[in-house]
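wait is this the right file?? whatever heres the structure
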């Protein structure tokens, strides 16, 4: 009787990633540019009473930009790093919108949130770099 615990199926092929790193970086640069321009425009128009609503609107716009790039390239993986890259930028933009700006005094809460987001983003990128080095 043959050993049923041995799997004789072939290993699936590695997934094909048709999107180059350059295209991904162009998507992120476009989202960052659109977000910065929208932030400036919407803040000047004073449509939102709270910077949190302004941040929400800008985040939605940036997400749409990334979504358009992912549809145009036929690869939704463009989305994944965005969710690690965007939050630290949004936190800095929200801090910059306070009275003191980025150079003003930081509360313990602001420092904690910024540090956690920066650590999370750095950790995620380090994991990706290490995974490629090991492979």
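ok assuming it is, sequence goes like this
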């Amino acid at each position: 009787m043959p050993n049923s615990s041995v799997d004789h199926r072939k290993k699936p092929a590695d997934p094909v990633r048709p999107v180059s790193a350059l295209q991904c970086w162009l998507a992120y640069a476009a989202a960052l540019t659109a977000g910065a321009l929208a932030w400036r425009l919407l803040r000047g128009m004073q449509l939102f009473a709270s910077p949190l609503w302004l941040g929400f609107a800008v985040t939605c716009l940036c997400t749409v930009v990334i979504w358009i790039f992912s549809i145009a390239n036929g690869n939704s993986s463009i989305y994944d790093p965005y969710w690690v890259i965007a939050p630290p930028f949004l936190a800095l933009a929200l801090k910059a919108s306070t009275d003191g700006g980025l150079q003003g005094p930081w509360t313990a809460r602001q420092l904690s949130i910024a540090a956690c987001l920066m650590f999370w983003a750095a950790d995620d990128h380090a994991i990706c770099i290490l995974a490629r080095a090991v492979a």
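The chain has one domain: 21-134. so i think its the right one actually
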